[in-house]
Design a protein that fits this description.
The structure is a homodimer. With about 300 residues, chain A is an alpha/beta fold. The first copy, chain A, is about 50% helix and about 10% strand. The first copy, chain A, has two domains: about 5-175, Rossmann fold (3-Layer(aba) Sandwich); about 180-295, Orthogonal Bundle (6-phosphogluconate dehydrogenase C-terminal fold). In chain A, helix 7 (about 180-205) packs across helix 9 and helix 7 (about 180-205) crosses helix 11 (about 245-270).
């Protein structure tokens, strides 16, 4: 997979994912040249020093000009205006893709602007950290993780295959899925977990009887895990919830039903039901480790046994 | 803190915490001799090979005989019967303590059996991993973490000071707190976060529209963090919820109120409110890292940038 698959790659949005994509593409020489653009001049200046692109351009137009592959890496809330701005400058035959965590809204916001002859293939790499900005990116972010392509009906098979090869070159495994199903799966595996993490951290912040100092000191008892997720980029996550509302509310409804049942078990002192649930959930952890999607080290390896 | 503070330590229950306590006490020679007991013969046999005690006894009586410090490390549901069994054999002047995650129930279950002249001081080290059993323990588990002592009214100050010194010798920082407040603080920082983690993993397991294979493959998008907590010892956690019902239900009530509000923000598309919450929660993460209670490495350091 070290063959050059594209001539010019344009990365629009130079945060955690955009910068990681640049590093990953350069690691295996997947493209001849990478141009990057970010709406924030400060981010552009910092990105230019980091070397994950060959050039950082002052305009969207300059970034996408002659690009064979254009990948939107901004928060999804910005996609519509970006798509509108770049559409006239896209090269015929180019692939336009993205990395957004929701896909229905992307098809809705970007689709109408895509010129004939340009292949629009939404995509979503399932990878990230709680850090943001161009300095947060690294080449191995996608290694062993899954990237989901959600081609719109009638997509060119060759273009889909080329994009798949690109992501594999970045270290990812690739799946293809329908847009609506993607948005439901991610509501379950990502969006609702984030919502819940944000919520419990918010509750701890607002609870009068427990001080913030206490929450922080004793966080190693479980709470601190939630704070990592609840430290994710606020703009990105606001846009996720604004753009995957139906699926999030559907999964959240199920979560709430299940939590009411669990609450009743606690109230009734139903030890057997609690034990059964806690045993089932333990098995899922083991499957995730077997699938290579998490470390088997205790506490994620962060509290290492010392000599 | 390398002076010998106790002659004989008895560890009752040789799982993750009991074994870590043995390793930690031996690391700094905090006691002259350690006796261990576990109700499970297989655990006793495995523990005897691991070297974190000097002897593993066949009976509770033999373990606590002549012990200056007895620490209960079984699930809290077993405390009452253990306390009843060991009470006649406790040495006058000995300290009886524990490591349970709830303290009101411990005072209720153990207190009535404590003979005159024995110092009963409940305690709770805020440390652990998702693994169980004598092999899971390690000497540095308590390093830099907090142990909370919850002395009952009228406790001997010298005994409290000796137990504090013991835990500091194990690497912990020590706080003293009232029992009821401990149980509320831990409901917030530990019990409700665990309940929520168990619940979301259960929801993912039962949701018909998303397969278990999909949940596992795409878990790196956030879900996998919850599975670590939801892999914690089922017996221990059943006992926590059975024994801290009121505080858990109180904090859970607040969590539910806050989640309803958040759900409404999603439904209404209230991006400003979402962004504000997500920004506040990010700050709490930073405080936890500054306080040395978690790593600053992205993704807890588990997905390390590779060369």
């Amino acid at each position: 997979m070290t063959t050059i698959t594209f001539g010019k790659l344009a990365i629009i949005g130079l945060g955690l994912i955009g910068s990681s994509l640049g590093h990953a593409a350069k690691r295996k020489n997947l493209v001849k040249v990478i141009a990057g653009f970010d709406a924030d001049a400060d981010v552009r200046a910092r990105a230019a020093k980091l070397g994950f692109t060959d050039t950082v351009t002052e305009t969207l137009e300059a970034a996408v000009k002659d690009a064979d592959l254009v990948i939107l890496c901004t928060p999804v809330g910005a996609y519509k205006s970006v798509a509108q701005a770049i559409a006239p400058h896209l090269k015929p035959g180019a692939i336009l893709s993205d990395v957004g965590s929701v896909k229905g809204a992307v098809a809705r916001d970007v689709g109408p602007f895509v010129p004939a002859g340009v292949h629009f293939i939404p995509a979503h790499p399932i990878a990230g950290t709680e850090f943001s900005g161009p300095e947060a990116g690294f080449a191995s972010l996608f290694d062993g993780r899954w990237t989901i392509l959600t081609p719109v009906p009638g997509s060119d098979e060759g273009a889909v295959a080329a994009l798949k090869a690109f992501w594999e070159g970045c270290g990812a495994q690739v799946d293809v899925m329908e847009i609506a199903h993607h948005d439901l799966v991610l509501a379950m595996t990502s969006h609702v977990p984030h919502l819940i993490a944000y919520n419990i951290v918010g509750t701890a912040h607002e609870l009068e009887q427990v001080t913030e100092g206490e929450v922080i000191k004793y966080s190693a008892s479980g709470f601190r895990d939630f704070t990592r997720i609840a430290a994710s980029d606020p703009t990105m996550w606001r846009d996720v919830f604004l753009n995957n509302r139906e699926a999030v509310l559907e999964v959240l409804g199920r979560f709430n039903e299940d939590l009411s049942r669990l609450q009743r078990w606690v109230r009734d002192g139903n030890g057997e039901a609690l034990f059964d649930l806690f045993t089932r959930t333990r098995a899922i952890r083991r499957s995730i480790i077997s699938a290579g999607q998490d470390t088997a080290a205790p506490n994620f390896g962060r509290d290492k046994p010392k000599a």
